[in-house]
Amino acid sequence: MTATHELFPFHEDSDVAAALGTLLVQRGSVDPEKFNTIANRFNLDPNQLEVAAIQLGIEDEILGVQKVSDDEAVIRRNSPDFLNSRESVTREYDGVRDSGPDGSTTRTNEMSFQSWLLVEATKIARETIKRLLYDHLGDEAKAVRVSTQAAVGTAEYPERVLWVGVSYPVDKSEPRMIPAVSNPPSFPFDRLVELLPETLDTTVEYQGKTFHVRNIPVVPFQEPHYH
After folding, report:
1. How far, in Å, CA of 108 to CA of 31, rounded?
2. What is the Cα–Cα distance from 38 to 217, expressed in whole angstroms?
């Protein structure tokens, strides 16, 4: 019988996970939503969301100058035992690049099993979202960019803070200037929000074992473009 494991990199509550992802995309925004506004949107107690951010190790990434609870008062999450006992994994990156000494164009990277699993799970989520958008929008889906997003976390678990971001380009060029977005979406941003799930579960198979990675945030955001 195949061994099955389950993990929640962001949070076991999908609303909390989605709110954390939404907070993370506020970084660098010229008009970021307030922390409490996002908590209220997901019907969460701001204190609960704050604790979740600290447990994830991203309080410096999303809370900025806001007052946060004493870090020592928040119990960090432990990595599941089934992740701690595994050896590192060599991950391959395919693509066009200068050939190596043996003529190969494949780059490899050694990483812990936990990091590899989270990278693979988020990659699967990203490709799932691409297919979903193409199924609903056809070629119009090319106007938005679906990518793996990352933040610097300080917690031991998860080792990598990864989610799926969906960028909706917004032309901010001055009137009479050449448009900064050559292929603007023909559909409104609200339509994109309607189509996307707030979180996604993915499954990764490895050496006869099945790993269910739950509540990966999927976050649409408007990305301004300037000349």
Report:
1. 39
2. 14
Residue 95: the pLDDT is: 47
SS3 sequence of the chain: CCEEEEECCCCCCHHHHHHHHHHHCCCCCCCCCCHHHHHHHCCCCHHHHHHHHHHHCCHHHHCCCCCCCCHHHCCCCCCCHHHHCCCCEEEEECCCCCCCCCCCCCEEEEECHHHHHHHHHHHHHHHHHHHHHHHHHHHHHHHCEEEEEEECCCCCCCCCEEEEEEEEEEECCCCCCCCCCCCCCCCCHHHHHHHCCCEEEEEEEECCEEEEEEEEEEEEEEEEECC
211 near 121, Cβ under 8 Å?
A: yes
Q: Is 60 exceeded by the pLDDT of residue 98? A: no
pLDDT of 101 above 70: no
Backbone dihedral angles phi then psi of residue 50, each to the nearest 5 degrees: -65, -45
Q: In sequence order, what are the beta bridge partners of 108?
A: 92
Tell me the per-residue pLDDT of 65-78, one tens digit each, with 9 for 90 and over.
344 455 446 778 88
pTM for this model (two decimals): 0.86
Q: How confident is the model at residue 166 (pLDDT cuts 50, 70, 90)?
A: very high
